[in-house]
UniProtKB/TrEMBL annotation:
It comes from the Bacteria. It is an enzyme of class 3 (hydrolase). It comes from Micromonospora echinofusca. This is Beta-glucosidase. It catalyses: Hydrolysis of terminal, non-reducing beta-D-glucosyl residues with release of beta-D-glucose.
Length: 460
């Protein structure tokens, strides 16, 4: 393939999430999260796996940062565990929880790595869930207070702050079909949660702005929705519906000042939006941001087909929308590999929502490492050619979007480490660094060394 180069100021990094790597679930005053509870609910997480130990990053963060520096990472996106800071989600701040992130940030900066903070990556304090979670408007207000508390400790060193990670997952998967914590199954609840999550973003963004933060953002997981038949008006209607629920219901209030009319009408099939949307809410949600994080893994193909099963992640698609199964190469998650979808998505975002810089805050793939790493017999290298091919293709797709004028500022690989993959437990590996969960030994995979070279040359 042709060699390509990225802009001189392009940011290269990696991303993780607190619950997936930290462990130390009951140390230093940390409270329980909805994921602690979910893991202990029979049948919800593969093989009963929990995040109690995970990658033990809480104790091994210094070694992990040393690995980041060895790879040449310029930025590291991590999330703060709300239950570490406020064990009950409200009230006094737990200084020992903040101490950990204080040490982490100092260690990153000492290694020349820019810390990017995500304030919420799904680990809601269980006490708040007991009061309704994201169905309770007060949770959005508490989130803003928590954001301000974290900034008070870290704001002198952290420049880039993102509020939420993938509110699509928190709402539809957590409250709609129940495959994620807290495990509720109610479309009306999913739509209510969407609004309160976005309100929480707006309130937190306002609190951060008032504290002097210059770069405030949010991370979404928009998908590239495509029709099975580009010439079909019916399939175009399927695209409109699914794109509305996955993309526009988040992007429009954030970047255009209000929810799209067709989505408000769709929501009204399940719950009256007036029961949770108040005057001035949309203005709060639309607070200016300086960065939109994009998590991309796979496109979505749909067709309009009366009687189709639909997908319970998208309430209202049953009996109307057929979601096409993958017909090409897939990852270990069964997700279609199509790098061109990233180019299309980035171009669409640049066209429909101009003026907001973008960063790919997650992109990567789960594959079964070949050969499976066994330090007693292996040569010390974890070979993952499929992951390298995936990353190479998607970086080239991102570069194509850049060349076409998209304001893309950086790329963060998902994930730095193999980790707890939510309902899949530890059986799916996304990391560029292999983790032996019995010994906690870290071994950079071939993809890590490949990525190290990409960063060093600023290109492919």
């Amino acid at each position: 393939m042709n060699e390509i180069r990225f802009p001189e100021n392009f940011v290269w990094g990696a991303a993780t999430a607190a619950f997936q790597i930290e462990g130390a679930a009951q140390e230093d005053g940390r409270g329980a999260s909805i994921w602690d509870t979910f893991c202990r609910t029979p049948g919800k997480v593969y093989a009963g796996h929990t995040g109690d130990v995970a990658c033990d990053h809480y104790h091994r963060y210094s070694d992990d940062v040393a690995l980041m520096a060895e790879l040449g990472l310029q930025a590291y996106r991590f999330s703060v565990a709300w239950p570490r800071i406020q064990p009950d989600g409200t009230g006094p701040v737990n200084p020992r929880g903040l101490d950990f992130y204080d040490r982490l940030v100092d260690t990153l900066i000492a290694r020349g790595i820019d810390p990017i903070v995500t304030l919420y990556h799904w680990d809601l304090p269980q006490t708040l869930q007991d009061r309704g979670g994201w169905l309770n408007r007060e949770t959005a207000e508490h989130f803003a207070e928590y954001a301000a508390a974290v900034h008070t400790r870290l704001g002198d060193r952290v420049r880039t702050w993102t509020t939420l990670n993938e509110p699509w997952c928190s709402s539809y998967l957590g409250y709609g079909n129940g495959v994620h914590a807290p495990g509720q199954q109610d479309p009306a609840a999913a739509f209510t949660a969407i609004h309160h999550l976005l309100l929480g973003h707006g309130l937190a963004a306002g609190a951060l702005r008032a504290a002097g933060v210059q770069v405030v953002g949010i991370t979404l997981n928009p998908t590239d929705v495509q029709p099975a038949d580009p010439t079909s008006a019916d399939d175009a209607e399927a695209v409109r519906l699914v794109d509305g629920m996955h993309n526009r219901i988040f992007l429009d209030p954030l970047l255009k000042g209000g929810y799209p009319d067709d989505m408000l009408a769709h929501v009204a099939r399940y719950v009256d939006p007036a029961t949770f949307i108040r005057d001035e809410d949309e203005k709060t949600i639309a607070a200016p941001i300086e960065l939109l994080g994009i998590n991309y893994y796979s496109p979505t193909y749909v067709a309009w087909r009366p009687g189709a099963a639909g997908d319970d992640k998208y309430p209202g698609t049953e009996g109307r929308v057929h979601f096409l199964p993958a017909t090409g190469p897939v990852t270990d998650m069964g997700w279609l590999i199509e790098a061109d979808g990233l180019t299309r998505l980035l171009e669409r975002l640049g066209r429909d929502y101009p003026g907001v810089p973008l960063m790919i805050t997650e992109n990567g793939a789960a594959f079964a490492d070949r050969p499976r790493y066994d330090p007693s017999v292996d040569d010390g290298e974890v070979r993952d050619p499929d992951r390298i091919a995936y990353l190479d293709g998607h970086l080239r797709a991102a570069h194509t979007a850049l060349a076409r004028g998209v304001d893309l500022r950086g790329y963060l690989v998902w994930s730095l480490l193999d980790n707890f993959e939510w309902a899949e437990g530890y059986r799916k590996r996304f990391g560029i660094i292999h983790v032996d969960y019995l010994t906690q030994r870290r071994t950079p995979k071939a993809s890590a060394r490949w990525y190290q070279e990409v960063i060093a040359r600023n290109g492919l």
